[in-house]
Amino acid sequence: LKMSWFWLYLPLQLLMATCLCHSIKAPTSSQQSFKTNLFKFYHSLILADGKETTVHLLKDITKRYYFVLEEGKVLAPFLITVTPCDVPIEWSILLYKPPPGKATQGDHDTQEVSKSQKVSSMVSTIFNYKGNSVETYMGMSSHSAFYLLEFLSTERDTHITVYLTTDTTSGHLYPELPLDPRIDVIGIGPTTVTLAWKHSPSVLQYRESSQYCLLVNEKHNYKSLCAAETAIRSSGMKLPPTLALSPSPYLLEPQQVMILSSSELSIINKVSSGEVRQVCMGTRNTYTVPNLSPNTQYYFDVFIVNLLTNASTAYTGSFARTLEEPEPKVTELKDGKVIHVVLEGKKQKFYSLQYQARHKKIHFTFQLCQGQIQVHITRNGKTVASENLTGLRYFSLKAKLLDTYLVQLRSTEESNSSVKVQASPYFHKPLFPLLPESLKIKSFSKLRTCRSVTIAWLGTQEESKYCVYRKRIEEDQIWRELQSADRCSGPESRHKSEKVLCKYFYDLNPQRAVTTEIIKGLEAGTLYLFDVYLFGPSGIPVRYHSKVVKTRKKC
């Protein structure tokens, strides 16, 4: 900003003149007010033109900034935008007008007017505001003048951003809002809400450098992006540098989850009061928020962000309550019948099974086939068992006649999961065979050769049938084979050429119920996947954990 030497020394000249008057007689209240205003000027900072300034405020301590309009202009426009980043603040704009020129002899009688009134009339408050909304003041002056901005926080220490520009013709730092800045809720489900909003003129004009970002939380709407970021930081976590940047390798805190898709960056902050989700979706003006909780109120804020400056403007926030989850369909469990349940991981909904007791003891059996599953069992509405399944699991429960059991199953992974379930009162007719302490297959590295490997596994105290299968695989297939294996599938799903042998064995002493087998006829330096199937009286197999072994390359 340009400023003449006259304007730099004006406050000092006025102060000296005022002090001279005080030496003659006691100062009036108006003179004292002007001295106070001069003191304010000398204890203020100059406000930069054309850039956003971050101002830190201490509680109950006024902070001041000043600027001077450029001299020589007939009409000097200026624009000031103040963005509170936390609690409500008070701020004002004070105008210091130039003093009147020297009086002529004919005006001698006019000089009888109180000099203190003249001095006091040079200072006036032209704008003041109290609150936490983003406020913009646009002014116009036909003369050179000093402007003083005063900021005060009465609740607690906080920070704000202040933007001043005297160039109102070449565009604004902040993106423009449409004439209707509301966010419309156009669809609501139990776990989703669909939003739409009018395009910002800035997006239509500067598509490459503009981006919409959405913030979702369960507490309240935010009036600015910096207010939202301050709230998240106050919960004790760090934010990425900005939401506006294109997807990059952010360093996330343990409480944060980042989700990347083709054109979308989503960061979920886990805070004590719930999730705060931040999603940037480019220039799309519709979005469906997924994975919400049923019957829960959410608040939605959309910000249009200038990618070149990181400046943002907030749409008018909206809110909506998700619908209640519909009552799940219940499948009846019948005595001894096995049900194979496939659960969709993405939906993470409960699958419900119902069983009515006809005996005093009930036996529930679960065989986890794929993925990870949580099981929850209630009797007449009260929880009797709840845990995550691993492998084969039995629940033996006491019951009364006509007690109603509800079994709820849910996948805990994003991929699909599956499980086999049986309810039966007949303990003497188990569905699955007696299991050993471990279903792991062990291989002996020192006994490997170029053409054979030696494996071992545990058995039980009852005579059972064990079948061994092998499959040649490549290095890049190991993870897929181990992760996608269906632990409920039996040998009928295997190719006949993969079968190695079947054998019967048992030992009444569990410590000695171990068997080994040398698998011959293999190729040197080759990876093999080995599986063992255990068959019980019912004929339903239990698959041991697969084992990958590589034969020696040279012998």
Automatic annotation (TrEMBL):
One GO biological process term is: nervous system development
Q: Where in the cell is it found?
A: Secreted
Q: Mainly localized where?
A: secreted
UniProt-listed Pfam families: NDNF (PF10179), NDNF_C (PF19433), NDNF_N (PF24354)
> Is the Cytoplasm keyword given for this protein?
no
* Entry keyword set: Glycoprotein, Neurogenesis, Repeat, Secreted, Signal
Give the stretches traversing the membrane: none
Which residue range or ranges hold the Fibronectin type-III domain?
Answer: 175-312, 433-541
| Classification via Gene3D superfamilies | Immunoglobulins (2.60.40.10)
Offer an example of a GO molecular function term for this protein: heparin binding
Q: Which GO terms describe its cellular component?
A: extracellular region
The signal peptide, as residue positions, is: 1-21
What role does this protein play?
A: Secretory protein that plays a role in various cellular processes. Acts as a chemorepellent acting on gonadotropin-releasing hormone (GnRH) expressing neurons regulating their migration to the hypothalamus. Also promotes neuron migration, growth and survival as well as neurite outgrowth and is involved in the development of the olfactory system. May also act through the regulation of growth factors activity and downstream signaling. Also regulates extracellular matrix assembly and cell adhesiveness.
- PANTHER family assigned to the protein according to its UniProt record, in alphabetical order: NEURON-DERIVED NEUROTROPHIC FACTOR (PTHR14619), PROTEIN NDNF (PTHR14619:SF9)
Q: What is this protein called?
A: Protein NDNF
UniProt source species: Bombycilla garrulus
Q: Which gene encodes it?
A: Ndnf_0
